[in-house]
Amino acid sequence: MVNVRARVPFKVGLNSDIEADLLSFNGLESGKEHVALIFQDADKQSEPPLVRMHSECLTGDVFHSSRCDCGEQLDETLNKMGEQGGVLLYLRQEGRGIGLYNKIDAYELQSQGMNTYEANNHLGFGDDLRDFTEAALMLKSLGISDIRLITNNPKKINELEALGIIISEVVGTKAHVKDGNESYLRTKASRGKHRFNFD
Ligand SMILES: Nc1nc2c(ncn2[C@@H]2O[C@H](COP(=O)(O)OP(=O)(O)OP(=O)(O)O)[C@@H](O)[C@H]2O)c(=O)[nH]1
Ligand SMILES: [Zn+2]
Questions:
Q1: Distance of alpha carbon 109 from alpha carbon 124, whole angstroms
Q2: How many domains does the chain have?
Q3: Same domain, 28 and 116
Q4: 3-class secondary structure, 184
Q5: Pick from 111, 129, 147: which residue ends a domain?
Q6: Residue 181 in contact with ligand 1 by CB distance below 6 A
Q7: Which residues have CB under 8 Å from 26's CB, separation 6+?
Q8: Whole-prediction pTM value?
Q9: pLDDT of residue 61
Q10: Is residue 5's pLDDT more than 90?
Q11: How far apart are CA 41 and CA 6, in angstroms?
């Protein structure tokens, strides 16, 4: 049984006044410390809330690494939810589930010419080890079963629906192209079937 523990208000975002409640959970089987940020009490409204399942990326979220778009997607989400309300699940699934050490090994292989998926496979991992069961449990424990999901990734849509969450709308993120991450984004589109708009 998953239970919501504390619910603490604070302000988030760079130079901003966005207010959110930080929630922790207990009872998650993996023992991971996934957390939720709730904007504008979106869990208590009648409309399906905006939801983002954001997978941890220390290098991108904290250091705004040039190799990926995670930090930009996180900032985009904070701003959007600051305006419209929403629920951000911050999931501790670093490196699509392989962890930081392995992700750094994968980066080394990418520097030698492999793409993200090939590097994962070369290290003996599947394309993507993430599982969204606990994310679905967190939503259910908040009383949320119908959502507007922020993602470009069809795997997230399919898995959440299979876990009984209704997705009434899919909201894409921008393509945050910058020096260093374009081939990463293009590989997500070609191999991972992410829906990007590269205009
Ligand atoms: N294994 C591996 N993981 C990476 C790499 N670059 C970023 N990640 C991880 O990928 C995760 C983010 O997944 P993405 O595939 O970028 O995007 P997504 O969350 O599936 O899709 P969106 O919802 O559209 O953002 C984070 O956990 C990152 O740490 C990489 O080169 N190798
Ligand atoms: Zn990243």
A1: 13
A2: 2
A3: no
A4: helix
A5: 129
A6: no
A7: 2, 3, 5
A8: 0.96
A9: 97
A10: no
A11: 15
